[in-house]
Specification:
Blueprint: H1 4-13, H2 32-42, H3 44-57, H4 59-64, E1 70-84, E2 91-109, H5 111-179, H6 184-219, E3 228-229, H7 242-252, H8 254-274, E4 280-291, E5 299-310, H9 318-385, H10 390-425, H11 430-437, E6 440-441
Antiparallel strand pairs: 1-2, 2-4, 3-6, 4-5
Helix pairs in contact: 1-5, 2-5, 3-5, 5-6, 5-8, 5-10, 7-9, 8-9, 9-10
């Protein structure tokens, strides 16, 4: 049975497993959960982490085998020619020989083998933590890629809106020129802005293609019509204090669990190398039969048991060198763990502040859009009556489009920031993806 801590690690592996499904064909995902299910079933990095964990599970029986009985058998048969002298007349003869034996060896004392057992547990814990981290990172990557597609599509719609808006302004300047209330400079200014808007449409559509390919790389399935965000309330961190999140990250982050297990493995390697100097005691039993060796026709049969002691006295300095090497590697693991703790702390604090900031950014972006829209309508009316110039109108139109673009960025960043904080703290689970998925609607944004 695995140790309690190992059972807890393995239990955590199951947090995302209910999402796993098998896909018979390349069906396109419609929402975030379906996208993650496809990625979970096909991601090569996740498959690699699973295989590595399965490989590490074999370290335990491999280490235990040094403490269990070893049973071996040997047999041989030969065709021989012998010339025997010294016993009278020389004798030349041909004869068959055969032999067989069975040996049983049982370790009575092997200090290195006990250390190897502990190392096996540590390696399994490290690999289990690596698998959990890979699962969480995949969930984060899918969420980011999914909402990047939605954001790119939203920016594409804004680019099309910009083109239509500037086209209407361009037509308006042409009409004013024809009735004598406009000038050619205004027409040229509007045309230049329209040309730039058309280029932005092409760029935005390319952005959609790039974002879709990034999502497809994760899901290994075509990207269909994705459900978009419906109406939702911006939500900051819960709890709304940094310290609880940092404490949670230092306790739960799989990267730290992996580094801690790797440190234990390195420390156990020091002990393993030290125990190379220890004596080894084995109990050995043997039963053998030999016919025709060393003399034709001579039959030897024996059975016996022995207690064997072996201990190195001097190995050319290799044991001391191995101990010093493993001590240095253990210290490196200590430093790596300290560095990771600092990195996890910083990443969690940054993700916390980003989520906190995203709420204010979304509210501000929404207000800016409403204000820019009013400003555009007022400036357009002013241009129609001659109190505002074409430059004023084009600048106001640009400000409005930029406000729409900034709102799209703030909208999707607010949702992604929630996932990023959970991933930074190492507590991202299926329930978090489900809660984000619940914000999606088949009708999309209104």
């Amino acid at each position: 049975m695995p140790a309690p801590s190992l059972r807890r690690s393995c239990h955590r592996l199951c947090l995302l497993l209910p999402l796993t499904v098998l896909f018979a064909g390349p069906a396109a995902a419609d929402n975030l959960l379906e996208a993650y299910q496809q990625a979970y079933a096909t991601d090569p990095a996740l498959a690699q982490a699973r295989a590595e964990l399965q490989a590490e599970f074999q370290d335990k029986p491999l280490a235990r085998s040094a403490l269990l009985p070893h049973l071996g058998a040997a047999a041989g048969v030969g065709d021989n020619t012998a010339r025997i002298t010294g016993f009278g007349a020389p004798i030349s003869t041909g004869y068959l020989s055969n032999s067989y034996s069975v040996s049983l060896t049982q370790a009575v004392f092997n200090g290195q083998a006990f250390t190897a057992l502990k190392q096996a547990d540590s390696r399994i814990r490290a690999s289990a933590a690596a698998l959990i981290y890979t699962e969480q990172q995949l969930a984060l990557q899918v969420a980011q890629a999914y909402f990047n597609v939605l954001q790119a599509q939203a920016q594409d719609r804004v680019a099309e809106k910009q083109e239509k808006l500037l086209d209407s302004i361009y037509r308006q300047t042409q009409a004013n020129l024809q009735v004598g209330t406009g000038d050619i400079i205004a027409v040229n200014e509007a045309l230049a802005s329209l040309d730039a808007a058309k280029a932005n449409v092409i760029k935005a559509r390319n952005g959609v293609s790039v974002a879709q390919r990034a999502l497809q790389r994760l899901t290994h399935h075509p990207v269909g019509i994705l459900e978009d965000l419906g109406r939702f309330e911006a939500m900051g961190p819960q709890p709304d204090q940094t310290q609880p999140w940092v404490a949670m990250a230092l306790k739960s982050q799989p990267l730290l669990h992996q580094a801690e297990a790797q440190l234990r493995t390195a420390q156990e390697q020091v002990e393993y190398n030290r125990r190379e100097r220890w004596p080894k005691i084995n109990l050995q039993g043997i039963a053998s039969h030999t016919l025709g060796s060393p003399f034709p026709g001579v039959d030897f049969n024996q059975i016996g048991a022995s207690l064997n002691l072996s201990m190195p006295l001097y190995e050319g300095g290799s044991i001391s060198a191995a101990v010093q090497q493993s001590q240095a590697q253990a210290q490196a693991s200590v430093d790596n763990l300290a560095n990771l703790r600092d990195e996890v702390t910083l990443n969690t604090q940054t993700a916390f502040l980003n989520l906190q900031d995203s709420v204010a950014q979304l509210h501000a972006a929404k207000e800016t859009v409403a204000s820019a829209k009013v400003s555009l309508e007022g400036t357009r009316k002013g241009y129609e009556v001659g109190t505002r110039s074409i430059i004023d109108l084009l600048n106001t139109a640009t400000d409005y489009i930029r406000a729409e673009q900034d709102y799209n960025v703030a909208l999707y960043n607010q949702v992604v920031a929630r996932v990023q904080l959970k991933a930074a703290a190492g507590v991202l689970t299926a329930a978090d993806l489900e809660s984000i998925n619940a914000l999606l609607s088949k009708d999309g944004r209104s």
